[in-house]
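Below is a complete specimen:
___
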Amino acid sequence: MPKTREEALTKILDELAEFEIPMNPYYDDAEPQGVIDNILTGKINSLRAFCQLLGWAELVEHMKDMTPLQGDAVEALDLIQAFVIPEARRRIEASDIDNLDSPTQWFWEFVHPRISALARPRFEAGFFGDAVEASFKEVNDAVKRILHGIDGRELDGAGLMTTVFSPQNPVIRLSALATESDRNIQQGYMQIFAGSMTGIRNPKAHENLNPSSTKSLHLISLASLLMHKIDERQE
């Protein structure tokens, strides 16, 4: 089993370089076509995740809309073997990828530690959607634990957020609520918390969305901000 980043990436490149598609069965029978599409899709997604981790934007762009494969595996494999694999091998030879920091190393230093602990390993493994989902589930669970600890209620999602952060009778106060500006802050964050559950956590959990690495970092940043706001709550 590969133990280093270079070994793991080289293994994927070797598998793709050796991958062959039997033309007649592929084009004549839907069953082997589906099997081949699924296998090759997984290998290409693994290669793309490595390229994203290493910051190889040009290679990521070449594979951006390639998967899931649906009857177009031959064309995709031709591009992978003709350009992506040789270029990836050239980059491996040109740098010590096992000693390269993740291009997002600096990012995690600013992320709330509970969000980082959940999101970072998923993100760096290439599971961007899972990283986002885990981040907002943690926000939801943090608020849920506070509410349950205060009065035993079990709420979830947007309803939990509008209840807990309500400017009229908040369980968690984010401001003194003494002025109009204070109440606007409370109202605004209530809407952001609730909107995050409806617009980010729920679609990701229910529809298996797969955001890009860049969009994932934006969403993880939002989850981090919300966790910091929870920590800053006024007793």
Remarks:
- The mean pLDDT is 88.
- The radius of gyration is 23 Å.
- The chain has two domains: 5-99, 105-231.
- The CA atoms of residues 158 and 195 lie 7 Å apart.
